[in-house]
Amino acid sequence: MPAFHWWRTVFWLIPAISVYTLVLGAVSLASMLVDRRGHVAHGCARVWSRLILVTTGVRVHAGGGGHVEPGRSYVFVSNHQSIYDFPILITSIPFQLRILAKASLGAFPVLGWHLRYTGHLLVDRARTGRATLNRVGAMIRRGHSLIVFPEGTRSRDGRVGPFKRGLFLLAIDAGIPVVPVALSGTRHVMRKGRLTTCPGEVGIVLHEPLRTEGLARTDATRLAERARDIIAATVAEREGDPTDRVAPKDPAAKAGPRAASGAPGDVPAVTRGARRERTAGR
Questions:
Q1: Cα–Cα distance for residue pair 181/150, rounded to 1 Å
Q2: Mean of pLDDT values over 78-104
Q3: pTM value?
Q4: Which helix (H) or strand (E) holds 56?
């Protein structure tokens, strides 16, 4: 006999979320006729996400964020535990967020139109180059920020996997600060490979931005490692033993060039600052 939360998911949550998606999706698509910047669509996505969290019974505890400047563009990089991560991020980060998605999604009716015309970046990863950089520049001029999951896949056990360096190359080329975002507890809401969803409490911490000015493309590996270490330390602190939460690093990452000594946003300083913020907020 399936557990209670399976029945709750299938006969309550999925129908409710389907209604939210149809209604707000229609409004979002209609808004493209008058708002090509995608601000109305983003508002619909935030309402849709908040309704999902409330219906599921997910309570979000946010920390940090005092170092990000309203109106500025950032690349927010987050660990990835659950399909609930995106609703949590978009409701917790008060910026115009856009995602980096596979170009193949643009071929899907409705979804592809929505992504293409509301400022999201559809990228052919095999052909990233100047055209992608130009689109990032256009995104910055519109005042938008990017949210990405550098692990590339969801973690089953909460351990933070290696970060792909390509996203950090993009941030360095565009000169956009990188903001490490740590999510904790989200995998308990809906585990990878399972249909069941459960109520619960999750955490999100926005760390101090890591500046990209003055960095070369050869620094991308080091930047990715720094962001990952900051996020992994926070997840370990909030969820348990660091040896249980931090996945082995990519051996190739160790070959990355050393960042300038004393540069703002170095890992120890950021981690300590984040802990002071969390302690003060308790």
A1: 11
A2: 90
A3: 0.80
A4: helix 39-56
